[in-house]
Amino acid sequence: MGATVAIIGRPNVGKSTLFNRLVGKRLALVDDTPGVTRDRRPGEARLGDLRFTVIDTAGLEDAEATSLEGRMRAQTEEAIVESDVVLFVIDARAGVTPLDAYFADVVRKSDKPVILLANKAEGRAGEGGLYEAFALGLGEPVAISAEHGEGLAGLYSALLPFVEQVEEDEQAAADEARFAIELDEDGQDLVPEIAAGTAERPLRVAIVGRPNAGKSTLINRMLGEERMLTGPEAGITRDSISVDWLWRDRHVKLFDTAGIRRKARVQEKLEKLSVADALRAIKFAEVVVVALDATNSFEKQDLQIIELCAREGRALVIAINKWDLIEDREAAWQAIRDAQDRYLNQIRGVAICTLSGLQGQGIDRLMEAVFGAYDVWNTRISTARLNRWLTGILAHHPPPAVQGRRVKLRYMTQAKTRPPHFFVFCSRPEELPESYTRYLVNNLREKFEMPGTPIRLSYRKGD
Ligand code: GDP
Ligand code: GDP
């Protein structure tokens, strides 16, 4: 049970060292001499709170029969088949070698997700290799030092979604099996929507906000409506931190900060805690609904929470709750627009929904906005379209010249989604003013229709 992670790469890049680091025991022998026999048992790995099984492919160079590459390839393919996710390791100091490229190809041809690790990158060593690693076409490399235990937080964040996904799938399969048994015993279709729903991955939504913004009322209203539609408790399962909810046939996992607080057994005062609570919920979520109180919205703490969501790169929707208490709605809406211009520039175009959790108004519109924000967050733009756009920008609004020299933006590509993250390759990125980056981000947002999502744009040095 749990995820299986294969460590793949040519000899000597540090696979066994990484294996030992993850398993925490000296299970595999580390040796500089190629051809030394090694133990290849799967290990039970831990990384922070993640638990998974790791398989090391080191040691394959000692078999006798065929060519080295042939043996490595067979071994690698076997490990890939057994795994849920592949850690592809290169030696950042050595850069990308032809053998790395060869194995990258093998990995790429399999359908398994891959995390590219540039090892031996302690200190700032291996920066050159890190840059070269992009050329392998396996996404953004994570710099680590297996020997010195550096960069493990990066590895953790890269692995987290895969490990969680496997656990969720296993849970879903177990649930399905359980429901199948219930159906057999009763001889009738008890709760088909649950069986169908558990097979699908729910959208993870956190509802955060200051104390008293109305989060609990809103969540209860959401669940209450569902109860009326589908009968008592159908489709609803509750654990201490999340609630599964069905909204128009779509599966949603709601994370509720109150639940998280209970789970963490934190005793401090509410007022002080809400930002820390929010952060915990945000980390679980794909889309975050920030609930504001319409009678005093956009207070300092609200802005802190919004800022946190943007920094964590989550899709975002703003819910102006208690709208039923507002008498002059036109004036209130104008004030919200003003606040939007003043405070929400980095998530320009974010959906702002007015609602009343208490009276159950505006919840459907809120959920439509949530799914809309999720779609934008997943935007992927082809490299060809991006570079056509970049060419146009450079023609009409090139970067300002610094000391008579212009920074050259050469090329760009989307490195990640959720949120969209773009790399622009250029000479002397350090000379580009912040204002120019803002201009690029705003223009990208408009041109490719990505309202409200945090957009990341980083520069990579390259000629
Ligand atoms: P494998 O053949 O891919 O399993 O590689 P090993 O784990 O046996 O490591 C090969 C060599 O690289 C050993 O001498 C390790 O000590 C060294 N090594 C592994 N990880 C690191 C690292 O993070 N930094 C440095 N500088 N050396 C490392
Ligand atoms: P939480 O701390 O964010 O979970 O807030 P609660 O859900 O406990 O709500 C705080 C207070 O605001 C309670 O007295 C609720 O009845 C009230 N409240 C919540 N939502 C609304 C709403 O939409 N309209 C009005 N008028 N009151 C609300």
How would you portray this structure in words?
This protein has 463 residues and is an alpha/beta fold. It has 3 domains: 4-27 and 36-178, Rossmann fold (3-Layer(aba) Sandwich); 203-378, Rossmann fold (3-Layer(aba) Sandwich); 383-461, GMP Synthetase, Chain A, domain 3, CATH 3.30.300. 42% of the residues lie in helices and 21% in strands. It has helices at residues 15-23, 68-82, 98-109, 127-133, 152-186, 192-199, 215-230, 257-264, 270-284, 300-311, 329-343, 363-377, 383-396, 434-447; strands at residues 4-8, 43-47, 50-56, 85-91, 114-119, 142-143, 203-209, 237-238, 242-247, 250-256, 287-293, 315-321, 351-354, 401-402, 405-406, 409-416, 421-426, 456-461. It has a 7-stranded mixed beta sheet with strand order 8-9-10-7-11-12-13, sandwiched between helices. Helix 5 (152-186) runs antiparallel to helix 6 (192-199), helix 8 (257-264) crosses helix 9 (270-284) and helix 9 runs parallel beside helix 10 (300-311). Bound molecules: guanosine-5'-diphosphate (2 copies). One guanosine-5'-diphosphate (GDP) binds next to helix 7.
| Mean pLDDT over the residues | 80
Task: List unreliable stretches of 5+ residues.
Answer: 27-39, 59-65, 179-199, 226-240, 259-271
Q: What's the count of strands?
A: 18
The overall number of domains is: 3
Which distinct ligands sit in these coordinates? Answer: guanosine-5'-diphosphate
Shape: globular
Rg over CA atoms = 25 Å
Derived from helix and strand composition plus strand pairing, the structural class reads alpha/beta
User: Do you know the CATH topology of the largest domain?
Assistant: Rossmann fold
Classify the beta-strand content into a percent band: 15-25%
Number of helices: 14
